[in-house]
Amino acid sequence: MNESVIQSIQEHSKAYKSERDLDKILQEIGDSRIVLLGEASHGTSEYYKIRTELSKRLIEEKGFNIIAVEGDWPASQSINKYIKGNDETANPRDVLQSFKRWPTWMWANEEVVELISWLKEYNAKKASKQKAGFYGIDVYSLWESMEEVILYLENTNSPDLEKAKKAFSCFEPFNKEPQEYAVSAGYLGEDCTEEIVGLLSTIRANKKDFAESHEQELNLEVNAMVAANAEHYYRAMVSNDEKSWNIRDEHMVEALNAVMKFYGEEAKVIVWEHNTHVGDARATDMMEAGMTNVGQIVREQNPKEDVYIVGFGTHRGTVIASKEWGVNLEKMEVPPAQRGSWEDAMHQAGNYNQLLLFNDENRKLFHSPLGHRAIGVVYRPQYEQYGNYVPSIMSERYDAFIYIDESNALQPLELSDVRL
């Protein structure tokens, strides 16, 4: 371990003892219009709680009006309608049942209940155009988004309905199984690209003719965009991991930009995604592999002063994850961080929660690449030294870092599925 890094952390970090300590980050965010809030896992309570507190203050104190998350657009629309008063469902936990695709615990958890309950209360006091929105900008909901497009075109008697049905009929042989379509398109050359891209072009050209409201216009466009980009993603998935990764993150930025355009000049967005998406890829070994991500693209597309990125991490604790894709979630132990890693350096600098703000004066002190732990929805703690650490120049990857010395697993709504 580089002792100078530990010393620099000690000199420049601040103890994080209460929510008021977040004042420092709010001050540094300043007039930024896009704030990206990461997480080192999809199953850690503290990340969700701190992001909730930061989001509440950004909305109340700085006029932010969008939360965009690493989630499906159709399921997230259930939250958006609920918090804006367009859904009479009484219980926020019922709203979160819309998240049916594995891993459901990412959004169907008690920590998100707290967030959307606050958003509904906040919006109840605001005029329609001042309400904050909640949007999922991920790419996975191919079939769900296609169904949403069909349903809307049917309900509005759109002349584009038959074209949409014809485009989507191309996918029927795959029984709503993305993997089956991926194999067919990637290996056999039997894809639906022409049909789905043509439909997206038609909807974009005609959306104002049949959308009953501006929000419905956005919903229709993004669902069509998801269908087109998801088709591209699954087609690439079987042959090129790097290409499919880029398609996914490029889609998330495209969807994000569509939402911001919908909100107009007053748009100010908070993005909730994993560190691997929001932390600038150019500061990691992802760049060498030809990969990009949301953080990099957003920085490239916007003035420097408009974007602020916050990373998160922990030294040890517990987490919700699964040992294999699609199987039951578990509460797992997160072992002490690997020696020589960034989290280990933070722990050695002080075994308590910390905030570290990077700026022009101290960035050069944190320019040594260090392994930075990343836990996904699939996690095997006993093997994490072989693939869970991303070499990172931390002061270039983020503008600030929030360190939790010992973290706790979040609380999924479906506790019956969890082996505790």
Automatic annotation (TrEMBL):
What's one GO BP annotation on this UniProt entry?
Answer: response to antibiotic
Q: Where are the transmembrane segments?
A: none
Please give the Gene3D superfamilies that the UniProt record associates with this protein.
EreA-like (biosynthetic domain), EreA-like, domain 2
This chain belongs to the protein called Erythromycin esterase family protein
Question: Which organism is this entry from?
Answer: Rossellomorea vietnamensis
